[in-house]
Amino acid sequence: MSESSNRRILVLNGPNLNLLGTREPGIYGSETLEDVRVLCENTAAAAGFDVEFLQSNHEGVLIDAIHAARGNVAGIVFNPGAYTHTSIALADAIAGVELPVIEVHISNVHKREAFRHHSYISPVAASIIVGAGVNGYALGVQQLIHLGTRG
Ligand code: DQA
């Protein structure tokens, strides 16, 4: 991993997160995905890190992004959306690239329907941030930087 990839973070977003701001605002709030991007960039920049920011509604695109991240970033802040609860393929991709992944959910999934209580991603995540609203992304970026810079 080069010096520059050490100081880059991938923030990855799964299906329907492009609708943030208008999608069920009572659950996900009124901030848009663009607001989240700016929040992540500012949080990372404060520690001298850059952010690569991506959203896709397609599982294969997310898998490709995880593969491409290997050797190019220090780790991934990942909100897999509903794929959290269904995707063995995303969990395998994360296990395969051996990058630290911080799993983020805007809502507190444990307060919601039972099918949201199980995550295929959690067993391969370094840390999990749930129910902190979009600030969870900022916490995720900070946690990733913490993992990468601790003694
Ligand atoms: C989510 C929670 C998931 O259950 C849901 O399918 C989402 C968003 C969250 O950020 O709270 O799309 O990951």
UniProtKB/TrEMBL annotation:
The UniProt GO MF terms for this protein read:
3-dehydroquinate dehydratase activity
Biological or metabolic pathway of the protein: Metabolic intermediate biosynthesis; chorismate biosynthesis; chorismate from D-erythrose 4-phosphate and phosphoenolpyruvate: step 3/7
Q: Which UniProt keywords apply?
A: Amino-acid biosynthesis, Aromatic amino acid biosynthesis, Lyase
Active site feature: Y28 (proton acceptor), H105 (proton donor)
> What positions are marked as the site Transition state stabilizer?
R23
Its recorded reaction(s) are:
3-dehydroquinate = 3-dehydroshikimate + H2O
User: Has keyword Flavoprotein?
Assistant: no
Role, per record: Catalyzes a trans-dehydration via an enolate intermediate.
What subunit structure does UniProt give?
Homododecamer.
Full protein name: 3-dehydroquinate dehydratase
Source organism of the structure = Paeniglutamicibacter kerguelensis
Annotated gene? aroQ
